[in-house]
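Reviewers of the previous submission asked for a worked example of the structure-prediction workflow described in the proposal, so we include one complete record here. The input consisted solely of the amino acid sequence. No template or homolog information was supplied to the procedure at any stage.
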Amino acid sequence: MTDRLAAAGRRQAYQLVIRQALVVFVAVMVIAAGWGWHAGYSGFLGGLIVVLPNLLFARIAFRQAGARAARQVVNGFYKGEAAKLGLTILLFVIVLKWVPIRVGALFAAYGVGVVAQWLAPVLNQRK
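From that input alone, the workflow returned the following structure tokens.
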């Protein structure tokens, strides 16, 4: 039973990350069409900075499920959020320090990804 619960939560979390990635992909295509390939590349990196940590969070947070594993579930969410924050900071540092980018395009795509993350649960409830 708990494996099914964990699998269901993991599946839903992965679906939200996939939807977020699709929204970011569309934003990157718009950025590339409007401001060129370099801006599109920068937007792509901004999208990766928002999507990859969310994927890591989903992987860590949904390892456990069920009432008997309540403490492990909560700990998984804390560990997942800490890993997500750490990876986000690391990716920003790497990209901003060593990759020649257009900062506006990077943050535009990152912002679209964050907004998609916020809106995904609301839009998912409409089904």
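The mean pLDDT is 89. We consider this example representative of the routine output the project will generate in years two and three.
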